[in-house]
Amino acid sequence: MRTTSLSRYLALGLSASFAFLAHGAAANTVAYAEDFFTGGDFVRLDFINPPVYIGSFDYLFAAGAFADNDFSNEYMIWYATGDLYSIDVLSAYPTLIGTPNTSGNGPLAMHWDPVSGQMFLVAIDASCETTTLYTVDISDASTVEVGSTPGCIIGLAIDAQGRAFGIDQTTEALVSIDTTTGAATPIGPLGFRAQRLIGGFDFHPESGLLYLFAVDPDAGIRGIYTVDTTLGNATLVGTYERDFLGLAFAQLSDAILASGFDP
Fold this sequence. Notes:
This protein is mostly beta strands. Helices cover 2% and strands 48% of the residues. The protein has 1 helix and 20 strands. The longest helix is centred in the first third of the chain and has 6 residues, at 7-12.
């Protein structure tokens, strides 16, 4: 673990190069993520200024989510082992909670359901042909299998009404997910080919818009997209130069604003 300040990024000559002004989201946005571009730094983002460095760890996280309107800790899945961690957003200190039992399936995404008060997790089989939905207890990482569905679902987002959505890499499409059965229903194509480790897939807490942070390998860009939940199409609203992983939005009014984080 190491600590420093925003000057670390400026000294390296790195540019955030964000373009996140569409729909007025930037002025009311705060998020946390792993910045894999810099080797695994945990950062705070507002999508206007360069990321604020909090700390660093030697984990590659495939998923990130906050729970129950508590933005002091982000829950993240270590990609190599599937272990569930709680990350203190002030210090980036990772606390191992446990290993969710996903029966050998690889967990890729999770999201809190504000209606049922549960954390949901999706995991894929080795061939990426079947995806299984679980609930995971964030206190001890114990899991309950909900059900499986055909497809390779690489993202999970749940809105304020408890409606769940995923990205099926097999069909390059947005799907809706039944959180009582795990069944996925196609909505429509994204319009580009998202790579498996997407940076983030989350509903903006102020606007309610669904955002996707993903690499388009065909266009050669790291894109910030809004996704239409009725049609499935993704609209590019900006680009970035970093490889964010486990990105999750926080509620700005309740976010942790410590010294050096204040806007």
